Amino acid sequence: MTQSTLEIRRLVFADLPNVIAIERRAFPTPWSLAMFVLELSKSEGICLAALRDGQLAGYTICSRFDQVWHIMNVSVDPDLQRRGIATAMIDEILRRVGDRAQITLEVRPTNAPALALYERFGFLSAGTRARYYQDNGEDAVIMWRTEATLRGSLDGLPAAEARPVAAP
Q1: Band of the pLDDT at 133, cuts 50, 70, 90?
Q2: What's the CA dihedral at 156, 158, 160, 166 to 10 degrees?
Q3: I want to staple 135 with a disulfide (CB 3.0 to 4.6 A). Which of 28, 148, 163, 166 is the partner?
Q4: Beta strands in the chain (DSSP E)
């Protein structure tokens, strides 16, 4: 049995056919090709590809809005999940943005593996977005990673993001 190799590199336009294939298998409401093209076109973002034995195994999209980074998409081929691929991609994002960066994301409250992964990296839940997910109306958990969350505190989060979002 041979050891597989994992490489993390910049996501490029040529990866998009494979990205879309994984996206459609991984999510009930997948991103469109146009959404990925838009994110890859931004100069401030971090878009990464994870290649396992030379084949696209996962990708992540992280955009910058002023001083806050937003992890918008983390996906791993469903056949390759639970093998450290998402961990490696998040490690690389954190390496690139630095320890002092403010990072936020939304995640389904029913996605226990993702919640546990983000918590291991120092993300804390700071509220919810009501009916965030279009496929089933599920809320999203808003998570943050800041210098304060790494100490176990929610102090200093942008006020609009830190409060639970009320249902309309």
Answers
A1: confident
A2: -50
A3: 28
A4: 6-10, 46-52, 55-65, 68-76, 102-107, 124-129, 140-145
Q: Is 59 a catalytic residue?
A: no
> 1-98 maps to which CATH number?
3.40.630.30
Task: Give the active site residue among 23, 39, 59, 118.
Answer: 118
Asked whether the beta carbons of 60 and 71 are under 8 A apart, the reply is: yes
Question: For residue 65, which of 43, 44, 84 has the smallest C-alpha distance?
Answer: 44
Q: Token pair for residue 61? A: 């999209």
Statement: the pTM of the whole predicted model exceeds 0.85: yes
Q: What is the pLDDT of residues 7-52, one digit of tens each?
A: 999 999 999 999 999 999 998 889 999 999 999 999 889 999 999 9
Query: Which CATH number describes the domain made up of 101-168?
Result: 3.40.630.30
Whether 7 sits among the annotated catalytic residues: the reply is no
DSSP for 43-58, please give it.
Answer: SS-EEEEEEETTEEEE
> Residue 147 in contact with residue 100, Cβ under 8 Å?
yes
| Domain 101-168 in the same topology as domain 1-98 | yes
Active-site choice (92, 106, 119, 147) = 106
